[in-house]
Amino acid sequence: MNAFKNRPNLKEIDIPYTVEWYTDYPMSNDAMRYAPKGLKVNYWNWPYPENCVRSDELEEEITNGFVDEFGAVYSKDGKCLLKCADVKNYKIREGTETVEKLAFVGCDKLECLYIPYTCPEESFDAILGGSDTVGAICFWDKPYVPEELDPNESWSDDEVFIDDKDVVYTVDRKRLLYARKGFTDSEYFVPEGTLTICDQAFLFHDGYLVLSVPASIKVIGDDIFGKNGGKIIIRDEL
């Protein structure tokens, strides 16, 4: 809390991507409360540049790799993602077994990432950046369902649909993204036509939540409830 107290000569600090408490308003944080006036704060979404240097061997492999339609680069055998595409939403190709540690460095647009069942979660150690980078990471334990993932679909508040309960969906309403802090109901009815409920969708909901979902649902993410849990009721087809 007092890390920067009584440091009148401190003019500038760099905060690494691994620090999650930092926000766009650093003086509101306890650790920054006693920082000297005028302190310049540089927050890094990725490792410092000296730690983001790819080896010559890796650069050569990227140059000679397979490039998909979005610009992501895979090894020649297709089993390793070497460099991800800088798009808003990306689905790693099935058959991929490993991901290069620096594959996502510089992917500042990336908001949603699908990782196939062929790439075990326990072996995934790629750097995904700080809290302002990838927002939703979905590890699949089975083949992808036939779902169109628009690489340019945005989840920013002015490009989504927000219902009267303060629950946020993609514009086509096929994917329930998350519930905002204004959502306080103990029961919620997910509308017909919804295909996906994203990971941690109701994570910040207080209290037990009963979630009624349509038979159209294809994917229910991990850890969707808050600390008090909940239950899912799948409705019969209409």
Low-confidence stretches: 22-28
Global Rg: 21 Å
Largest sheet: 5 strands, mixed
* Secondary structure tally: strands: 17
What integer is the average pLDDT? 81
- Which strand order do you get reading across the main beta sheet? 10-11-12-14-16
**Topology pattern, helix = H, strand = E:** EEHEEEEEEEEEEEEEEE
Tell me the helix content.
Answer: under 10%
| Protein structure class | mainly beta
Continuous helix count:
1
Distance between the terminal alpha carbons, to the nearest Å?
Answer: 56 Å
Describe the structure.
This protein is mostly beta strands and 238 residues long. The protein has 1 helix and 17 strands. It has one helix at 56-63; strands at residues 12-15, 40-43, 66-67, 73-74, 80-83, 89-91, 98-99, 112-115, 136-139, 161-162, 167-169, 175-179, 187-189, 196-197, 209-213, 219-220, 230-234. The chain has a 5-stranded mixed β-sheet, with no helix packed on it. A hairpin with a 5-residue loop joins β4 and β5 (80-83). The longest helix has 8 residues, at 56-63. The protein is flat, with a radius of gyration of 21 Å. The N and C termini lie far apart (56 Å). 19% of the residues are buried.
